[in-house]
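Q: Hi! First time asking for a complex rather than a single chain. Here are the components, and I think there are two in total. Is that enough to go on?
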Amino acid sequence: MTTAATGNRSGFRQQSAKALETAALLLIIAFIVLPILWLAITAIKPQEKAYSTTLIFTPTLTNFEIIFSDTSVLINEGTDRERGEVGRNMIPNVFNSIIVSGATILIAIPLATLAAYAFSRFQFLGNGVLLIWILTTQFIPAIVVAIPFFTLFRNVVVFGKPLLGTQLGLIIVNMSIVLPYAIWMIKGFVDALPGEIEEAAFVDGCNDFQILFFISLPLIRPGVLVASVFAFIMSWNEFLFALIIGREMRTMQVALMTTSGARGIMWEQMAAAGLVVMVPIFFLAMFIRKNVVDGLTMGAVK
Amino acid sequence: MRKKRWVPWVLVGPALLIIVLTTVYPLLAALYFSFHKYRLRSPPQFAIQWGEAGLHIDWSLLTLDNYALAFSDSRFINSLQVTFWFTVISVALSVVIGLGIAVIVQKGGRLHTLTKVLLIFPFAVSPALKGYSWRFMLNENYGIYDLLIDQLIVGPINAVLSIINALPFVEIPLLSESIVWLGDKFWALFMLAMSETWGWAPLIALMFVGALGSIDEQIFEAARIDGANRLQIFFRVTLPLLRPVILIVTMLKTIFSLKMFDQVVTMTGGGPVRATQTINYYIHQVGFVRGLDIGYASAMSYILVVLLTICAAAYVSLVLNRD
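A: Yes, that's all I need. Here is the structure of the assembled complex.
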């Protein structure tokens, strides 16, 4: 009798603890998902419904049409007060983002891979200090890098125009954040690779470069791919350099700012542009899900 | 050994050269600029000159005015204070909420696993976009956050308060349902920190989940057998074991918070009345938007460099001394 009673009571306590935990989990999920969900919903709302919290609306792609077209787009078709919206034509901005981020990783990743391999496999004068120094460059505030490059690029003329406000200019400053980062990430992957295979190849008569290119590189390819994805996300989401050095050559991050018009920010257009910025990165982030913690902390938390 | 001396330098060389050019050059140049009167509209005469007589340094052109100005400029002092409070609030919220999420999510279960997968979501949202989406959702007329806060937090609290107020001699003022979040000095800064927390708490939770996973389950088992309850286990076992990771994560987040810029631009524009002007934002204003004063902007950014160097040194020593 008594045991049954205590059994019931502890069962009740256990159940209420479980219910509390489920409630907490649902709260966490809501906290994380709501801003993203709301952005997605707003992006497909017709303009007259975007400025309300209503969930009753007919989904539309008009907002995407507006941000990607360079002519005026008819909204509210078929109603008595048809209004047009001038297209914002963000296609060049998408290309700016792709070119800058793509070129940044195409330059940074091969160089970072070679450097990471050397740091992992060779003892050379000051390599430990050098590696820590590379880590600390990550703590330099971007604004300090931006100021001198801004004044420099105003005067450096490449292909007949100043580097300021060009894709090339932005790619160069992006190196300051992407390259040190990629070296550390890739070094982690090389470190994890057992050295015996390379030793065996050396015994078989391969020289250092043959070992690197034919033995080690193929083995660390997955790691290099992860680092590339990371580097791509970093330069895609980069804002301060894009604003100061990129200037009128707007990447998508800066183009988000152009969704404001006479009536303030056009939220439905901002949301649509935001989705374009977010969705590709979303898939890339899922791809490197397992490596995000290592990537953010450069392996400091394990 | 097989290794040839010159091989590593060939491999490291190109990357090192680019890192030096894109980080050391600007660091030196900004330092140099900071000792000059240098406005974009009137390019300066630099102290180091190459004349016919070779290298020549004109000491009279160097000045400490920019640094002196910084410490007497109320707007710069304000930006230091704003950055300080932003850092304190955002770091505290991110680490505490991150830890809470990690402890809850840690256990097995389908909903737990789903939540763990979702933790990566905010990582995909760029800071600039984060700022815009929060600004939109906090709008006092049509923002979903504004609606939810009024319905789920302010409403119930006010209901309780009005019951208490029904008692004689008690008159507690009700909470306002019409706060303009980004128009109020305190709330604007707080919400800026919240948007940062939204982005970081889940990632910090992921870091803690990894660290929790590497703790031997037998330690918890032993504590449970000794009769410790959940709270005791958390404060007496989990927290002490996580201490090194908590320190590292806190330091890392502090460094990121001190550099806050993107969301200030897209969410608050530094307002209302400079209440959210972080150091980075004010430097940007001085250097590129208003005064176009490169010398002064460089000097202020060097003060930021000093702050970050202290934090970075602390961080590196934490990481190196961990084991």
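A: The radius of gyration of chain B is 26 Å. Let me know if you'd like any chain examined more closely.
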